[in-house]
Amino acid sequence: MKFRKTLMAVAAVATVFTASYAVAQQEQYVGLPSYRVGPFGASGAALYGGWIDYMNMINERDGGVNGVKLTWEECETEYNNARGVECYERMKNRGPTGNSVFQPLSTGITYSVLDRVAEDKIPMVTIGYGRTDAADGTVFPWVFPMISTYWNQASAIMNYIGQKEGGMENLKGKKIGLLYHDSAYGAESHAVMDRLAEMHGFSVQKIAVASPGNEQQAQWLQIRRERPDYVILWGWGVMNPTAIRTASRTGYPVDKIVGVWWSGAEEDVVPAGDAAKGYTAAGFNPAGTNFPVIQDIMTHVYAKNRGNMSDQSRVGSVLYNRGVVHGIIYVEAIRTAQENFGTGRPMTGEEMRWGFENLNIDEARLAALGADGFMPNLQITCEDHEGSGLLKFQQWDGEKWTVVSDWISGDRELVRSMIKDSAAAYAAEKGITPRDCSAQ
Amino acid sequence: MFYREAGQFKASYQNDQQIFPIRQDQIGFIALMGFLFLVVPFIANQYWLQAVLIPVLIFGLAALGLNILTGYAGQLSLGSAAFMAVGAFGTYNFMLRIDGIPFLVALLLGGLCAAAIGILFGLPSLRIKGFYLAVATLAAQFFIVWVLVKFGWFSNYSSSGVITAQHVNILGVDFRSPEMKYLLTLTVVVVMALLAKNMVRSSTGRKWMAVRDMDVAAEVIGIRLMRTKLQAFAISSFYCGVAGALYAYMYLGTVEPEGFNLDMSFRILFMIIIGGVGSIMGSFIGAAFIVLLPVFLNVAFHSTIGAYVPADLASNLELIIFGALIIFFLIVEPHGLARLWQLTKEKLRLWPFPH
Lengths: 440, 355
Known about the structure:
The complex is a heterodimer. By secondary structure, chain A is α/β, with parallel strands linked by helices. Chain A has helices spanning 2-18, 41-62, 81-91, 107-120, 150-164, 184-200, 217-226, 239-250, 266-269, 292-302, 318-341, 349-357, 363-369, 412-430; strands at 27-32, 69-74, 124-125, 143-144, 175-181, 203-209, 230-234, 257-259, 280-283, 360-361, 378-379, 390-396, 401-403, 408-409.
């Protein structure tokens, strides 16, 4: 009896694992490797929530993309590499045409599936994180680190500081503190900052904060001693509010701190309280709900009580809006691919890749989407998988983020050449022959 | 009825000292190996091979490494993931810097690197014990990961500090498909598990257990403490190192030093606690439990109530159930799942006439 029960349980498990989901043919499937628990769970919930809400809105308002309904499924990764790989493998063949894009929101998982996406022909989109040199589309045809890479961001932050100082030439002799998360993510900033320092004649002081970064007394005492003109905060999670609080305790002016985009969400400043007033951070999407696209989500999704966020006040937060940006780019890629390969049917992974590679979201298109000023315009090519590289800077006034700059680009020439060198080294190590883009 | 050793006589010492003295166990083991080597590659799909079987085997090997140290030699360690990192980065550098080196040799050398580092961080075990030793190995965990991030040489100056595994080719056979990767992983794991099984019942293992049970008494009967403890550290780290290299080459392909963080060390420790401290099979059962149960819960939730409850609630429920199950098993069987298997075997010998 017991044995039979066990057998049945095993059989049940086996069916659950191998069950193929019956789906109608006119559906575009995407598997979302989300995380809603663990140290970064709050960020994951906001970003994937925004993305899902946007897809829901497209289904409700337009009936899908040219009649093709969007379907999705979530898989909890817990920000853990092994779980991410499991999710990738589980979802890659679901839906009528398989998974159409993989976006793990984790640099670790990005690396873990880097080889697999090329083999399985599934495009991977990593917006604002991931492997920087994957922006070279000739070596990494399947990876799209869109909008901006870390190197471009570092360069754009220096351009912003240069603007504040009244021109890049005024950076000569300045001291820049770089307070970074001591990990591969933080180390990404080093090479490009050294090059920029050489070009513009400022000096960089790199100060490491051990993960997770909830104790920074020593680092900020060092900063007080050295008195850098600006401090770039290259942080993550709990490190950000701690940095801002400790800065105010040690008397470093908060308006001289510039954060990266992973240091510039509500979650980073609200815990720091009043100390964060006047803090500036980079971002490729502003916060706020007064964009037509967010209003559409409100009327078509939340008014019908079908929203994904359990706390509706987080709609319009920086990370939520970043999720909506993901949704826009995804849907526009489907549209681009459909225009080329035939509307009214779901796209395969290869067709989706073409759609991402030929993506062109210009200002007119942004206005039509109701996203004017919501995200930078974006044009991807075969060689350049990054696109615009444009950032906006936002300042926290104690209540909300307000945009304080226009779209600012990094030093594209410098960053592109560094990306090219790094990708070429990777290609040599792996024995990859770069694609010839003129033949595409 | 079926599991009964009546009538099996051991006529020679050799017979008496086999790994599996009972004939049913021998048959069972051969059948299991036959199934894993000959049947699984043909019936399992990519998902099963790449997302289920390979990680369970690799984590099982890492747990086995920790079990040698903690379960048999009684030295608590929180640095298993760091030793895995040494193995992975060691193998990578041997493959990169020595032209044409066979993969298995690089794997062995990577494991030996981990063993050397293991001895180094095992030195404090001569003076400190128990939880204090765990803190010392915690230092290994942070120090090794820090070194791998800090010095670019280890990752061949990759801008983000990651290493990308080279293609594995043994005697002209390409190990690129999931089936081949699975077979290579399985071979390495089976060979090493059998070695471990033999080791723990030889004089080496008996010395470890003597030290574990009471080191003063062990010293009195002539066991050299330093040598025994460092040997346990070296062998344990070797196992972890090989598991780390397999993790990089057969499972993920590209790894970053942060992938081998404290979280992973804890996970390996939980595997042996759940599976059974001081049991070879327990390492694999524990690995299967810790790796697969969250996946199973996730799948089960999505196909049943996933459509009706918010996703954050479902994710948190999974964690709660996972935690509750761990507590449940620890209460029901504090000696681990392997002990359950042992009890089943003992009951089976009497079945169906228990009196």
